[in-house]
Design goal:
10 strands, 6-stranded mixed beta sheet, 293 residues, Rossmann fold, alpha/beta, elongated, 2 domains, 46% helix
């Protein structure tokens, strides 16, 4: 076995052990409550009992037996979970414990393991400013491990980010209503129309990844700053207070516009930084959804 394949499998195993443990002990109950199957499947008819809702009466059977019968429904448990994963250049940014790309891989794995424990199907769309790869939804551990392997090892063709593009594609290829996690830093051209359309048909959750230093410069003197998506290198004087304030104001404005876009589209969202554990923001998100049910 080639050395890099060995290294890759070691990484996959490490992520599996960590994220499976989290799914088992922390997330599985929360996930189940937050993402119950929405549909109702017809199961059987039985005789009417006091307290049954009138609207569940099956009038055909009732007429046949001259006695009221009601339809019984089971909740359709099985869901399709889609992971829309940003693999653009800015994922390589990370000045804290980890890069955004590493964080994204773990987040995907946690959601995927929680989903298969719940008997849900999981599929992935990798995107940059184009659709890079589509893995159709399936069940099972080996499918999830294949996804994790791809997450770690994937080399995108393009470096830009276009969220509108992936939402359009997703709405087109996934016909059945599904729950979709968009995992990105959302540094992208406008996508509010596409988000509204996608969230009407599906249930979209936005997991915004960020690095503290994309939002605030520390005082480090004159530093080179490279835009991972355009490859442009700029020298920035971080000792200049005005430069730091302008940078922070720009970041705050960008985030406010983003939060407004999510709110208007009715999309649940969590902000997850490279400097922190994702357990708390995810749990808060799941609990918020649970409370609304």
């Amino acid at each position: 076995m080639a050395r890099d394949t060995k290294e890759l499998l070691k990484k996959v195993r490490k992520i599996e052990i960590k994220t499976r443990g989290l799914s088992n002990h922390i997330f599985s109950g929360e996930y189940h409550s937050a993402f119950k199957g929405r549909g109702m499947a017809f199961s059987e008819v039985r005789e009417y009992q006091l307290g049954d809702e009138i609207r569940t009466i099956d009038w055909n059977v009732t007429a046949r037996f001259n006695h009221p019968y009601v339809k019984v429904f089971d909740e359709e448990r099985e869901l399709t979970v889609m992971l829309l994963m940003d693999v653009s250049g800015s994922g390589n940014f990370g000045t804290q414990q980890q890069q955004k790309q590493d964080l994204a891989a773990e987040l995907c794995a946690v959601v995927a393991f929680s989903a298969i424990q719940n008997n849900d199907k999981v599929g992935v769309i990798f995107f940059s400013d184009k659709i890079e790869k589509f893995i159709p939804p399936k069940k099972g551990r080996s499918h999830i491990l294949m996804i994790i392997r791809e997450l770690i090892d994937f080399k995108p063709e393009n470096k830009g980010t276009n969220v509108a593009e992936v939402l359009k594609y997703f709405t087109r290829v996934i016909k059945k209503r599904s729950t979709a996690f968009v995992i990105s830093d959302f540094m992208s051209p406008a996508f509010s129309d596409e988000l509204k359309i996608a969230n009407k048909k599906h249930d979209i959750i936005a997991l915004r990844l960020y690095d503290k230093h994309e939002e605030e410069f520390p005082d480090l003197g004159l530093i080179p700053v490279k835009d991972e998506e355009t490859g442009l290198l700029q020298w920035v004087n971080t000792s200049d207070k005005e430069v730091r304030q302008a940078f922070k104001a720009e970041a705050l404005k960008r985030n406010a516009i983003l939060q407004d876009t999510f709110r208007r589209s009715g999309v649940d969202t969590a902000d997850i930084g490279t400097h922190e554990s994702y357990v708390k923001p995810l749990m808060t998100l799941f609990k918020k959804r649970e409370g609304r049910r």
